[in-house]
Amino acid sequence: MPPGAPGVPMPPMPPMTFMHGVQRVLAFDVREGGKRYNARLPLGLAADVDRFLPRQIRQALEESEIEIGQLVELVHAMDPTMHRHPNTLIDIRDEENDDKRITINVE
What we know:
It is a single chain. The strands form 2 sheets. A 4-stranded antiparallel β-sheet has the order 4-3-6-5, covered by helices on one side. A two-stranded antiparallel ribbon has the order 1-2. The chain has one domain (18-106). The relative contact order is 0.21. Helices cover 21% and strands 31% of the residues. The chain contains 3 helices and 6 strands; from the N terminus they run ββββαααββ. The protein is elongated, with a radius of gyration of 17 Å. By secondary structure, it is α+β, with helices and mostly antiparallel strands. The model is unreliable at 16-20 (pLDDT under 50). Strand 5 and strand 6 (101-106) form a beta hairpin.
């Protein structure tokens, strides 16, 4: 029998964070040593950052002492009207090394 038929339970919905019907994501951009790494992480998956973010991005965040949990709390505390356009949460440039930069946006 198909899910939802009488007597058959519906499968659980995956966890999601919605704002006006659109799922919010954290967009990461890491530039270092002439290389660039990008990733988009839905807020609903932020608890599994080790699983869903590339190692290079996780290392850059750790080196800069950036905690994903705090970013998610910040996004949830933001004014909902701010989510209509991408917003920069973090933009870090290394003073000693112009080639290193970390940018995190909420979209």
